[in-house]
Every structure is written in C-alpha cells, then in structure tokens.
Design brief:
4-stranded antiparallel β-sheet; 2 helices
C-alpha cells in the first residue's frame, strides 16, 4: 500500500498507511506532526483508506516547533469547519 497524501491549503504531507507516521515530520504552523490518527479516521469513514485525505478530516499528534522535547499533544479533526464555511 502506498503512503497516504494528507493535504491542507498550504502543505502536503505523507502518511504511512499502517503506522500513521508523518514521513519527514513536516511542520504545520507551529505543530511538528509526528503521527496522524488513522484508527479514528477509519472508525469515522470506513476502510479502505483513500489515497488523499484533507487534514481537517484527520486528527494528529504533534510537538510544538518551539518546544520539540515536550510530550506530544493531540489535535482532533476539525471537519465541522467545512460545514461552517459552506453555510
């Protein structure tokens, strides 16, 4: 299985399809994303995983860019913002 492409309006990330690892540990604002929450995504959207996922549909664990030694924090998916923008 190929890496999953995770897209935002300004960035593209590559997610390992089994571990959820952010390949390259790319930065998203002040967040250095370590891993995407694929189990939560599968629970909400089913399987198989798509080739591309919008980042607002996917939670992730990150460390702050300015504090890389801190414990990872969780950022939940914000798919509901899509509904608000459409209204």
């Amino acid at each position: 299985m190929r890496n999953i492409i995770v897209k935002s309006t300004t960035k593209t990330f590559f997610c390992h399809p089994h571990t959820g690892e952010n390949i390259g540990r790319a930065r998203y604002g002040n967040h250095v994303i370590e891993r995407f929450d694929l189990p939560e995504f599968i629970e909400a959207h089913g399987f198989p995983l798509p080739e591309t996922i919008d980042i607002i549909d996917l939670g992730y664990w990150y460390v702050p860019f300015d504090n890389p030694l801190s414990a990872p924090l969780y950022e939940p998916p914000v798919w509901h913002t899509r509904d608000q923008e459409a209204a």
